Amino acid sequence: MNTKPKTVFRPKLFDKKVALVTGGGTGIGFAIATELSLAGATVWISGRSEEKLDDAEKRHFKETGLRLLTQPCDIRNATDVDALTSEVLTKSGSIDILINNAGGQFPCSAEELSNKGFMAVVNLNLLGTFSMCREVFNKYMSTHGGSIANITLGMNNGMPLMAHSGAARAGVENMTKTLSQEWIASGVRINCVRPGIIYTESGFDNYKGLGDDVLNKIVRSIPAKRLGTAEEVASAAVFLSSDGARYITGQSLAVCGGQSFTHLAIFEQEDKVGLIPYGALPLKARL
Ligand SMILES: CCCCCCCCC/C=C/C(=O)SCCNC(=O)CCNC(=O)[C@H](O)C(C)(C)COP(=O)(O)OP(=O)(O)OC[C@H]1O[C@@H](n2cnc3c(N)ncnc32)[C@H](O)[C@@H]1OP(=O)(O)O
Ligand SMILES: NC(=O)C1=CN([C@@H]2O[C@H](COP(=O)(O)OP(=O)(O)OC[C@H]3O[C@@H](n4cnc5c(N)ncnc54)[C@H](OP(=O)(O)O)[C@@H]3O)[C@@H](O)[C@H]2O)C=CC1
Predict the structure, then answer these.
(1) Is residue 2 one of the residues assigned to a domain?
(2) What Enzyme Commission number(s) appear in the record (predicted)?
(3) Does 78 reside within a domain?
(4) 272 Cα: distance to centroid of ligand 2 (angstroms)
(5) Quick one: pLDDT at residue 218?
(6) Is residue 227 part of a domain?
(7) Which domain does 196 fall in, by range?
(8) Considering its fold, how many domains does the chain have in total?
(9) Is the confidence at residue 273, as pLDDT, over 70?
(10) Of these four, 45, 234, 251, 263, which has the most CB atoms within 10 Å of its CB?
């Protein structure tokens, strides 16, 4: 089944709007950048690797005939964040839409996770996202309004091997609620999109070590019986960034094919198949 949706957004929806997508060179970020660009926005993509950004720009032009603007930035680095936001404002004059999509983690059991490893993931997902929000608010949105969407990860009931990332993502979701309350008076809305398991080549490259068996188990535990696509996450992010969502702020929208993220896992023994709590599985059998 081809699940790649054609865009549901009209061509000039974001006419004269400027959007900035972190991690926009690959996977979900690239799909979001594509949707925003097709809907008429001037789109900037950033990420640490200049090469990934250049490749994405070329691919986007080939596929759509439209241009993306690029600027490398490590969102954990305050100087980079300052330079990125200043560059976009100098060259394009506004940042109406911010998509904080850059993020990730490595799977690691809590007992093996060092403080340095924990902080590397918190600095990326939580501090990096906060620092992008604050800079864009202070430099532009506080006086002009705008919309921010933070991409998190559906693990609100916890996920084995993801203590660092779960803590950071929960932090982003709660921070989003506070910022929504502080910033609505300035015309700034801020929401989260919480993807389930989404197939992206670039993202999955990081989890090859977990093996196909884990992937098959995950698919079978999803009520939709398939992984999501980057385009399906992009639709949610673009909707929340649009005027159609003008009374929505401080919310998290799950894009997860009905996955409940309660601790259930598929349990198989001989000819029996059932659902049991994740915690009851041996560690290696968990995600
Ligand atoms: C098929 C089924 C699909 C199943 C797939 C299911 C996936 C669930 C859905 C989620 C999907 C996604 O998020 S998709 C997104 C995919 N992309 C990613 O996840 C990539 C993100 N990774 C990164 O950006 C980085 O590697 C990041 C994690 C932030 C670390 O950044 P840094 O470069 O600063 O860190 P490093 O210098 O590499 O390491 C700093 C410390 O972190 C720790 N550390 C780093 N890597 C480590 C590792 N692999 N294991 C243990 N510890 C590690 C060490 O303590 C390091 O210190 P030293 O020991 O002193 O060096
Ligand atoms: N795929 C999935 O199943 C799910 C993904 N997510 C989240 O969605 C987002 C996108 O994931 P996906 O597209 O799958 O994976 P990708 O690995 O393709 O996306 C991660 C992007 O973030 C960028 N990035 C990583 N670290 C930094 C940094 N320090 N500063 C700036 N940019 C950075 C990467 O570019 P570069 O390396 O050049 O910096 C890359 O473009 C991530 O936050 C991910 O955790 C959430 C739920 C599920």
Answers:
(1) no
(2) 1.3.1.38
(3) yes
(4) 37
(5) 79
(6) yes
(7) 18-261
(8) 1
(9) no
(10) 45
187 touches ligand 1 (CB under 6 Å): no
d(CA 131, CA 53): 21
Any atom of ligand 1 within 6 Å of the Cβ of 107? no
Whole-number pLDDT of residue 226: 94
Structure pTM?
A: 0.93
Q: How far is the CA of 106 from the centre of ligand 1 (A)?
A: 3
| 38-81 residue pLDDT tens | 999 999 999 999 999 999 999 999 999 999 999 999 999 999 99
* 79 ligand 1 Cβ < 6 A: no
Rounded mean pLDDT, 224-237 = 96
Measured in angstroms, how far is the CA atom of residue 145 from the centroid of ligand 2? 26
For the cut 90, the answer to whether the pLDDT of residue 37 exceeds it is yes
**The CATH number of the domain where 28 resides is what?**
3.40.50.720
269, part of any domain: no
Say yes or no: CB of residue 51 within 6 Å of ligand 2.
no
